[in-house]
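#onboarding

Welcome to the new folks! Below is a worked example of what a typical request in this channel looks like: someone posts a single protein sequence, and someone else replies with the predicted structure as tokens. Don't worry about understanding the tokens yet, we'll cover that in week two.

Example request:
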Amino acid sequence: MMPLTIVTFLLFVLKAFVVVMFAMNVAVILTWADRRQGAMIQDRVGPNRAVAWIPTKVAQGLALGPALAVVAGVAFVLVKLEPLPEELASRAMLFSQLGILFTWLTFVVIAGKVQTRGVQSSFDAWLYSLGDPRRIFYTGLFAHFLALFVGLALNDSSFGTQIRDIGYGGGAGLLIFSVLGGAVYAALSIRNEPRIGLRLAGLLHPAADGLKTIFKEDFIPPNADKFLHSLAPFISFFPALVVMAVIPFGDTLCFNVDHGGLGALMTTVPRDSVCAAAGSVRLQVVDLDVGLLYFFALAGTGIVGAALAGWASDNKYSLLGGVRAASQMVSYEVTMGLTLVGAVMVYGSLRVDKMIEWQQHNAWGIFVQPLAFFLFFTASVAESKRIPFDIPEGESEIVAGYFTEYAGMKFAMFFFAEYIAVVTSAGLMSAIFLGGWDLPFLYRDGLHVSIGGTVLFEQTLPHVMVVVVGALGFVLKTLTLCWLQLMIRWTLPRFRYDQLMRLGWRKLLPASLANVVATGLIVMAIVSAGPEVGKFMDLVADYTRAFVALVGLGGFIYFVVFLAKPVHKRKTLSSSSAEYAAAAGGTRSARMSA
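Example response:
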């Protein structure tokens, strides 16, 4: 720990605030996504109906303000933070890549808008003449690779200094031009509108719901236990939030130690070094040697909240929902714990940060423990009591389950706790099975692409950039797992109670026990084998990193192409089933036979 008690306390508060805000804001986005999917699948009114009308001048200011802040930040870096000669190449590469990224991204967004609303200016006509917005994306992708190739190929040549100067100054100028140009275009495109509707893609609706629940009446049944009835929402809400404290959301920040205190952030950090304890700041709220035990100890208290709410409400439906919730959560807690036993055997530690470091030096947990990942994912969905495991809240059977007699903010705490549980379970899965903040071939000193003993590419990167990119990778992995859990909600029907318990005790539990036995045998075999087996496993680990890198790049390209693809809506209007069948090409008929 750092010797400065006040600084340590302030850093602890800051990290706790960041983690809490991340979990709660992602939970809000998940509620919005649920409403959007429900609107699309069930043909209901979605959250886009929530709109805040603002004056046009204010909307233009909102468009220009962030762009001006980015311009000021880039100008400050250029003027005040002059790079050292050894840092010029990395900064030039960073600025050039950011400039290219924001340029094609701005053009793609504007081109997609023009495709939707039509041409309004000569610039719109030029963008429309380019055709499919995906062409802009492909051109930008080619520009990324071209700039990278030119920078690396000519870095050590006689033109290296000119190339670095062009990448540093020209990349910064291109970044300023793209950001400011896009903001100016947005401000000019709305100048003739009397007012602007601020919808934020429907995100205002969850905010309106939260504000509305504050003023709703707090109802307590006449014969209920008032103290326990009021205590149950807190027992369900806060444990689901504080379990994120043991999950690291980034690598350790290393500072120079200056006169017993923290100095400036280190420019670069060696690949395998660990900075001194006095100058290190872990991006983790609580660093415990028993991190996983802490997670399960607090997560298990949610069982008490659900059972207590059902019993204290003096309602038979609530009591039945509380009993269902308690039995379901206890059953799947056993499976969750056993699935991680194999991971603990492989990693050799209960500390989540040590697990991530093991994956960084070897392979991600999903390749080492694939069965455990799918078992843990299934059990975590059941723990959050979401479809298809929403037996405790089955509205078609027991109204709303254990929170039937709750209203206002108490109901919102139960409702919100489920989404926060989705975020925390996704964060733990990303840390244990998907490498946490680790990204393929990205180490503390920069990028090292190598397969076996063959080095394909190397690039030194600033320490703060490596940490920020790793933290963004952790966030992206967590959001992806949250999205997968939402997809299951609209894919599978609800289980019956007997099916749910049979799945937990007869299928998942034996599979988790078999995984523990198989993991023990494999670990013993590898440890007792010779060095040749160790070299082979290292080579396999390199290939898994390459596989993840290629899949990630392909997924990014597909996602951008999907967003840039024009939307074509087709409506079929028929007045009768016969006309609809005729429009579809007729019906098939076959000769009847016995």
